[in-house]
## 1
Amino acid sequence: MQVLNAKKCQKIVVLGTGGTIAGTAASASDHTGYTAGQLSVQHLLDAVPALHDSLQGHDLVGEQLAQLDSKDMDHATWQALAQRCAHWLAQEEVDAVVITHGTDTLEETAWFLQKVLDTNKPVVMTCAMRPATALAPDGPQNLLDAMVVACDPLARGVLVVCAGQVHSARAVQKVHPYRLDAFSSGESGPRGFVEQGQVRWQGGADLSQVHAHARAALSVPVAQWPWVAVLHSHAGADARQIQALVAAGVKGLVMAGTGNGTVHETLASALLQAQAQGVVVRLVSRCAQGQIVGQTVFTAAPLGLNAVKARVSLLLDLLG
Ligand code: ASP
């Protein structure tokens, strides 16, 4: 179950404006021959049962503001949308506004709202690239992710949530006519990612914080520094590599696992044995982007560090 930050949520208002997210097609396999703006915002909310579980008793208000294909967006709808946003955001019990919108002009509406709404509360826009009738529609997950962002205490201003990414109104642009991740923030990259009901803001963590054992790193002779090695999980892996390191006195092992931190079964049992013998194990992903999400058998390195940086952190951890 997706868990929202309940601390901040009192009431979330969802304004429906149409788009593919509310679109319907005659066939489930049809991703292009559909009519946008057919289903009500209430219908979209009802199609995501986890949404209500996630809100944990907090109120959700759905309001149909328009029912448009956003290629036909007009200034009158913009004004009405901004007025309703301002109305709701001024209510003390309203923590955020979520807007369902077509993808075609989403970036324009986002920027308009960013420039006209005077608020610190989040206004989270979301959308879909496939109609609601598709075999695997993307709208429900996008709506759920938008709700997660709306409830996040660090969310501010107008944000766009699509395909697990959070974009600012300023940077976001539709860059693809068909792909589910149709939006990009260009050079600046997304503001964050929604993973398993949590927002991972880019640059949100204080990476510059001095390690608790920094002093030791400057004074303990390096010959006494703990030996920390990096290993990769891969096809045809051999446990003797770990056994040899443990026998030779390794103190820490950073395992670069496959995908979301999975480890070849041969290596996993050797690592468990190593742990039982007092070796500290940290897990990272071999993937160049993202970071391990959710529970893993071994402790994941913090901040999504790559293997060699995770080795530095573990070395410092052990230096104390
Ligand atoms: N034409 C649709 C719209 O912008 C496209 C979409 O929502 O993806 O409303």
## 2
Amino acid sequence: MKRVKHLLSVNDLSVKEIEAIFRKTDHLKKPKPLLKNKTLAMLFAKPSTRTRVSFEVAMTQLGGHAIDLDFGDLQVKRGETIADTARVLSRYVDGIMARLFAHKDIIELANNSRVPVINGLTDLLHPCQALADIYTIKKRFRRLKGLKLVYLGDGSNNVTHSLMLICSKLGIDMTVSCPKKYFPDMDIAKQTLENCKKSGCDFKVVTSPKEAAKDADVLYTDSWISMGEEGEKEERIGVFAPYQLDSELVKLAKKSCIVMHCLPAHRGYEIKSEVMDGKKSVIFDQAENRLHTERGILALLLR
Ligand code: CP
Ligand code: NVA
């Protein structure tokens, strides 16, 4: 099969390719019909607001079309394999964006697709979110190297992992602050440290949120309970409580710091409303940037 460029992980992209996505994103702020007559299939095994809508709107704005396919409505529900689904869909469409549970399933999808597969979130990774996040940071600080991003909460989730990979690629120092039980995945940590060696930045994991927040340029949090983990709600709320992003933690960061959250947020749990709606929050610009960076990603991968 012809080799196609997939986006399953931030580590599928070189630094130059990430910069090209950001340049394309800027260039397409005024969209052009670059994807006329192209179709994106969007597969969802989990709920989505931002990813679903930003990809569909981006396709429309670029002159193409998106098909929203719920996993439950496809023949996979009746046992057709992911590999066969990919073989068939990729003969119809020009790209596939998928939100799945197991990361191995998106690898299987990509391995059997003739067209680019974009990871719209798996249990392990969320690369499109990380691209929009870094684009947001770059717009705000006009630089990336040497900034300190602090992630508070669940160190073992998809958003944390993709931030670890992208920060380490681009020279942003990152500290993850989480309870021991929720340290990042070992393999992702290994890839992160390898990226750090090349870019010359730092990565660490600490348990104390106060120690982590000190001198941060960016304070970032995400849900304590990711999709699929609802059964662990009680335990997670208890163990993550000390990591709540409140104004006391914000005071420890730099005066110029910004607050980020990929959304959906659970106000009063991982973040207090006073912080989410406060002056330092760029959370809704960050959500808007999903649309802008989706255009950049699609224009580069599907053309
Ligand atoms: N941040 C994000 O991916 O949001 P959705 O789950 O709404 O797509
Ligand atoms: N970690 C969250 C991200 C949602 C966009 C989840 O997987 O539910």
